[in-house]
């Protein structure tokens, strides 16, 4: 492997690591936003249950106050009924008393219904409050881990970027432009090893003549199929070398 190829291979390794770290850094805020969104939806559900429970309690209090008013009214009507001067007045008082008593019973029935409705609401609120408290702690811990991971990734990114700049500075401008063109085309994979006479990136077998030239190459060579920079590591034994060489058809 030539010195220039070693630089290009190192540059590819650095770019792959940098890309991975950049994706991780970009993903963390989205992850935090998602768990915060989930927490917010649980909080809104809790607030809705609290509001329903509060409305239930207010309605019960209103009905209880109305019952007191009706009971006082019935009591007063009974006292007044004792002074009725004729049967017509007596029946009028009876009708008003009966109406008030019916109102009391109606309110009492409604209060019983509201009490039945409030029980699951109270249970939901207590359960949700406990769960939300635990969930908030988990979210805070997750956010702390995310901030720590981001800081670590950003530090490593800075180090890798500095190393990348140093490698680029050693490359010829034309080679750097070639590298960037291939990297853009193939989403990061620029250099590929040839194994068994085949480009390991595109899996296409090299022409025998090209393969022989690659074995002796002292300059940069490219795969005729995918255009990537290719290199060849000689096998350990002669037998492996013969087995790796593509045969002419």
Write structural notes for this entry.
The protein has 249 residues and is mainly alpha-helical. It has 2 domains: 3-171, Helix Hairpins; 180-244, no CATH class. Helix content is 77%, strand content 5%. It contains 5 helices and 4 strands; from the N terminus they run H-H-H-E-E-H-E-E-H. It has helices spanning 3-81, 87-170, 173-185, 208-216, 238-244, and strands spanning 191-195, 198-199, 221-222, 229-231. The longest helix has 84 residues, at 87-170. The chain is rod-shaped, with a radius of gyration of 42 Å. The model has no long low-confidence stretch (mean pLDDT 91).
Total of domains: 2
Instruction: Give me the CATH architecture of the largest domain, please.
Output: Orthogonal Bundle
Count of DSSP E strands?
A: 4
Overall body shape: rod-shaped
CATH topology of the largest domain: Helix Hairpins
DSSP helix count? 5
Classify the beta-strand content into a percent band.
Answer: under 5%
- The averaged pLDDT comes out at 91
Strand order within the widest beta sheet: 2-1-4-3
Low-confidence stretches: none
Helix content percent band: over 70%
Strand count, sense and closure of the main sheet?
4 strands, mixed
Q: What is the ordering of alpha helices and beta strands?
A: HHHEEHEEH
From the N-terminal CA to the C-terminal CA, the straight-line distance is: 29 Å
Question: What is the compact description of this entry?
Answer:
The chain is mainly alpha-helical.
